[in-house]
Amino acid sequence: MKKKLNAIMVSGLTIGPVLGSGIIFLPPLAVEKLGGHAIYAWLIVMALGALFAYVFTRMAVVAPDNQGISTIVGEMLGKPFRELSANYLAGAVLFGPVVVALTAAEFLAPLLPATMNVHPAWIAAAVLLVCALLVISGASFMARILLVLSSLTACLLLAGSLATLVEAPALSLPRGLPELAGFGHVLLLIFWSVFGWEVLGNYVEEVDDPERTMLRAMRISLAGIISVYLLTAFALQNVPAGGMPGLLVPILGGSADLVFGILAAGLCICTIVTFTGAVSRQTAERLRTKRLSMVLQGQRPSVLILLSGNFLILGAVVLGWISFENVIEVANIFFIGNAFLGLVCGFRMLPSPTVRLGIGVLLVMMAFIVAFLPVYAIAFFLLTTAVSLWSSSRRRVSLCEDFPD
After folding, report:
1. Does pTM surpass 0.85?
2. Which of 40, 99, 128, 293 shows a CA-CA span of 20 to 30 A to 20?
3. CATH of the domain spanning 7-395, picked from 3.90.1300.10, 1.20.1740.10, 3.20.20.30, 1.20.1250.20
């Protein structure tokens, strides 16, 4: 009998990627720009993150298969938009894991002997390969590994933050109000900490009793994620010296930097595995209905296709054809596009006025983020959108001609 994921295991699929590289860079960035007022921004973003989680978990519960929210998008907006949503997520996972793998390489490189002189690109390639192997190992094993990595990271960051606050000579609360323009800019920057929930529906076939399990997993995950972000942000703005690794010094001493590097790499792996696993399941489901060779059927060929694409993008970065920032910006706009379509459908699906108001705020914030992205990323995104919708329309016309009324 095929093993199913329970609520604790599903929470392992969400805590890791939602924390992801965001917990490494965003709290120090917010403190640098807002000082003590950063905690206000985190409170707002965590409230929006809880709403984001609720919307996509409710959608995941009703997803009929591992295509996740793209199926719901298709039901509400039409089949071309189902394909568009799936293509957005596939595009994001073609570029995104390369960025995360290179970030992991930055933390793993110092752990290797200096005499090895390994190029970060080779470390990133090894990270991508390990993540692909975890994805094809099966949902149950994969979820257990991610649960261990994410739980260990969350517990150490919480313990370190608490110890830092206890040892701090004094705790300070922000006074007055922050400067509005700077506050809004930081809100947009740390808004990235809410992403990750949108792929939960791509695991629905592996979940035991989806409605009960996923809603429970959401509550468990939110408790952990919000606690980690708020506590680390508050500790960091009270004791900024040492940055994020410094939060572990009270409990780990001189090994804090080493352990933090390992934890950061582990969170990067969690992010890559969850998103690659989601898209490989979605792709396998999409290919299942097409008349393709059995060699291309199933999840493993989909993982191999994604891994090959990641290697090509990584190679392009190494050769200087595209920059690290180019890859980030293209991945970001595809992630936003997929989430935007999901939230539009969530607005239509969930009747609560409060929820709809919150979704409206989320949509506006994502629109503002896109407005600050470079022209080439927006142009590539629009080209992908046009080609995807045109291709879907062509297939629909072809089917109508083959099967006239």
Report:
1. yes
2. 40
3. 1.20.1740.10
